[in-house]
Design goal:
This protein has a single domain, classed as Alpha/Beta hydrolase fold, catalytic domain (Rossmann fold, 3-Layer(aba) Sandwich). It is built from 6 helices and 8 strands. An 8-stranded mixed sheet has the order 1-2-4-3-5-6-7-8, sandwiched between helices. It is globular and about 40 Å long.
């Protein structure tokens, strides 16, 4: 099963994304990229969701730019306009819900690294998000307003991560607990940042498989 490009309106502009639909329809999932951009790995995740019975859309947050070079990725990452991105995400959700293969009036959102932090940010601002999965999310300029959060969160983290450190995970746990939010956080022993990305050296097949199943189960539970 392969997806296709989708044009949608976001922040008053035409945006592009990658869409794969579930045969027979299924809940909608927004997939948010790492700092590399909308690369092949993210497209493959979208395809995997469709194969699992969920209609998925990955909006292109860099407007066509992508890279394999860490320095360039860091520049794109830091240049991202968060206010504009939030409006783009609203447009992506609207476009996903409009697909005939999307079932229900709420969507799930999942993100990786930069996208993981953005997934929580979006879940705090858009009540159409019914479930949020954060893979080792990090972005210094993205500050989710957790007091407004309505959706449950699943957080998946690496034990050895210089970006989303153990202290960061502990702080997230404490904050969500204090606010009485519904969440679960899981850290995979011996893994490193980006353990889910099978195009990167940190890929861990066992942790990735477990995290994928947890993600599917979480969305199936909360997006019935």
């Amino acid at each position: 099963m392969k997806g296709k490009s989708l044009t949608f309106q976001g922040n008053g502009h035409t945006r592009e994304g990658y869409l794969a639909v579930a045969e027979g329809g299924g809940p909608g999932i927004i997939v948010l990229q790492e700092w590399w951009g909308l690369v092949g790995h993210i497209r493959s995740v979208v395809d995997r969701f469709a194969e699992a019975g969920m209609t998925a859309l990955a909006p292109d947050l860099y407007d066509g730019q992508s890279t394999n070079e860490p320095d360039e990725a860091a520049s794109l990452f830091m240049a991202l306009n968060i206010a504009d991105t939030e409006k783009t995400l609203r447009g992506a959700i609207t476009a996903l819900l409009a697909q005939p293969e999307t079932v229900g009036d709420r969507v799930g959102v999942v993100g990786f690294c930069m996208g993981g932090q953005l997934s929580m940010f979006a879940a705090c601002l858009d009540p159409r998000i019914g479930a949020c999965v954060n893979f080792y999310g990090v972005h210094p300029n993205v500050h989710p307003q957790f007091d407004q959060l309505q959706a449950p969160i699943l957080g998946l983290f690496a034990e050895q991560d210089d970006y989303a450190s153990a202290a960061t995970v502990q702080a997230l746990d404490a904050q969500l607990t204090q606010l009485g939010k519904e969440f679960e956080l899981h850290t995979y022993p011996g893994t490193h940042h980006a353990f889910f990305n099978d195009d990167r050296p940190a890929f861990d097949a066992q942790a990735s498989a477990d995290a994928w199943q947890r993600t599917l189960d979480f969305f199936r539970k909360h997006l019935r």
